[in-house]
Amino acid sequence: xxxxxxxxxxxxxxxxxxxxxxxxxxxxxxxxxxxxxxxxxxxxxxxxxxxxxxxxxxxxxxxxxxxxxxxxxxxxxxxxxxxxxxxxxxxxxxxxxxxxxxxxxxxxxxxxxxxxxxxxxxxxxxxxxxxxxxxxxxxxxxxxxxxxxxxxxxxxxxxxxxxxxxxxxxxxxxxxxxxxxxxxxxxxxxxxxxxxxxxxxxxxxxxxxxxxxxxxxxxxxxxxxxxxxxxxxxxxxxxxxxxxxxxxxxxxxxxxxxxxxxxxxxxxxxxxxxxxxxxxxxxxxxxxxxxxxxxxxxxxxxxxxxxxxxxxxxxxxxxxxxxxxxxxxxxxxxxxxxxxxxxxxxxxxxxxxxxxxxxxxxxxxxxxxxxxxxxxxxxxxxxxxxxxxxxxxxxxxxxxxxxx
Length: 404
Ligand code: HEM
Prior knowledge:
mainly alpha, Fumarate Reductase Cytochrome B subunit, 2 domains, two-stranded antiparallel sheet, two-stranded antiparallel ribbon, disordered C terminus, binds protoporphyrin IX containing FE
């Protein structure tokens, strides 16, 4: 299983780097020549002019150039006059000899008018820019800062959730080696994506003024490439994490009690839960499953890794807006997960690093899970890996098991 998983990750890395860096092929000149021959007649349509054929002196040199009417200007400079540019700026597509298959937007300089959520009715490029600069950056940034502030406040007021009782020294395997490697591959890829994403989006506000153009340019270039490589790895490891943990994240009736009391996190007694409490299940279904799949899907579009999709500017703008919203919400959610998984709860990080928790930890944080272990419904040791430095779990627990 581990060999299969690392092979899959390696494949993802190769796939990601090969596809993400692929550039679009050069246009076929023969095709261009035949297309030019079949250029449409110019009755009323925008006429393209081969700039190299412009033998005539610069039109502006002509007498009365500045006072020419549009009709006159259209004659002397068919490709450069106000009506022509009005059409261009309103998104009209002109004639281009480039094959549509290779250049789906050839002939269209400025996209037609659209209204994205939060933008004015304007050309799509400008509409996207307004959404990004007026909504995604300010509100996305504010949300991340607010969550960070709330976590800092919680830690300052409450501190780490420590164990109340003494450890018994009897250990239970909470995460097998496979679960831990899937988790950390995903966690590391996510961290690379989150840090590089934050710098690409917000770096110009807090890093550029300090670093200056050259250094910031190189940093963002390196991080953009790290982002493109880590993306496919995250995509594969996320699917593995979903498959691995989905069973134990299915809802139980006790989850409602947990949610009703906020898990008892603000009191001094945690509400009993199964292997994963309702809070972890909300992060799993909301963060890992729902947002995770949206982030990966829109990320693969931005990386041009979805076969058969026509990648136009509009596709990329929509994918970017979806990606930006989903990633900011996911980062906000995982800031909480990472806090609990590092300094927020004693023993949590050790569980995902060594795979084992003490019986007391299990009792205080996941009592119903411990009951299942004691009743033999869940084995105390699931993987084959030998317990190197820990007293044999199952032997000692057998003595604890309540007679069925
Ligand atoms: C640096 C980042 C991260 C750290 C330090 C971290 C830490 C932890 C820890 C300590 C646990 C064990 C909690 C327990 O025993 O119940 C855990 C569980 C878990 N983590 Fe993470 N994690 C990180 C990032 C991620 C990411 C990015 C994902 C997925 C996108 C993720 C998904 C999970 C899942 C699915 C579980 C199992 C618990 C459940 O299913 O609810 N983690 N993590």
